Amino acid sequence: MAARVKALVAGNWKMNGVRASKKEVTALARKLAGKTKPACDVLICPPATLVTTLKEVAKGRKIAIGGQDCHAKQSGAHTGDISAEMLKDAGAAYVIVGHSERRADHGETDKIVRAKAEAAYRAGLVAIICVGETEDERDAGQTLKVIRTQLKGSLPDGATAKTTVVAYEPVWAIGTGRTPTSDDVAKVHAAIRKALEKRFGAEGTKMRILYGGSVKPSNASELMAVPNVNGALVGGASLKADDFWGIISAYA
Ligand code: 13P
Q1: Would you call 246 helix, strand, or coil by DSSP?
Q2: For 95-106, b where at least 16 C-beta lie within 10 A, e where not — what string?
Q3: Cα(35) to centroid of ligand 1, in Å?
Q4: Could you tell me which residues are beta bridge partners of residue 233?
Q5: Backbone dihedral region of 211: left (phi > 0), alpha (psi from -120 to 50 degrees) or beta?
Q6: Active-site residue numbers?
Q7: 141 CA from centroid of ligand 1 (Å)
Q8: Per-residue model confidence as pLDDT tens digits over 181-215
Q9: In order of start, what are the domains of the chain with their CATH numbers?
Q10: Arithmetic mean of pLDDT, 148-156
Q11: CA 4 to CA 1: how far, in whole Å?
């Protein structure tokens, strides 16, 4: 039986957003300060260029800021990379690691993702570790096998419910408008919960498991009601305050 955990609705802005986008965060903060107080934590992961700016906008509001990736090392000769410590210094509280776009575009393996999650812990950031099957893997009936392998390889041994969030994002559902059925989401999330409990004991019962992939205001309530879904990782629909609020409102 899974423990009751506070949900997290996280926005992944990907490579979108400039300084003017802070108006969306201001608008969201205003909604969060209104009468409807959703029973979830709210996080925005903008491009690294905006972490400090958005942290300033979010100051004193119920919005946390996070990074989208980090290097495993603390510093050094790694042109173009950003360390977990730098994100922390810029105002981040979380960092996404192992997003499928990083796995695909930058050849990130489970081993690399695990090292990045360890870097997040070292810096005092919560790691949001992403897993998810491709369409071919799903068609071949490999979904659960793929997810279990990714979990095993990508999660550090010391993962706890405080330091780690798992995000299940079926690759074929990202940015496509397609989502798995609630039953399919329930099956995968139950399997993730089981794997987490087996490996991490009581911590595994409390670890948040987010669903991601084409979450929008119109499907959020149904997806967020699925057992073992403890929130969402939202791409496109997190860019506009109104849409993101529509998803957060699933917890109102
Ligand atoms: P979309 O919500 O745009 O499908 O993206 C999901 C995602 O990849 C979040 O990390």
Answers
A1: helix
A2: bbbbbbbbbeee
A3: 28
A4: 10, 212
A5: beta
A6: 99, 169
A7: 23
A8: 999 999 999 999 999 999 999 999 999 999 999 99
A9: 7-251 (3.20.20.70)
A10: 98
A11: 9
